[in-house]
Amino acid sequence: MRKLTYLIAMSIDGYIAGPGDEIDVYPTPEAYLGHLASEYPETLPSHGRAGLGVADAPNRLFDTVVMGRATYQPALDLGVTSPYAHLRQYVVSGGLTSPDPAVTVAADPLALVRSLKAEPEGLGIYLAGGATVAGAVYPEIDEVILKLYPIMLGRGVPMISGEFDVTAFERTDVTTFDSGHVILRYNRT
Question: SUPFAM superfamilies this protein is in (predicted)?
Answer without folding.
Answer: Dihydrofolate reductase-like
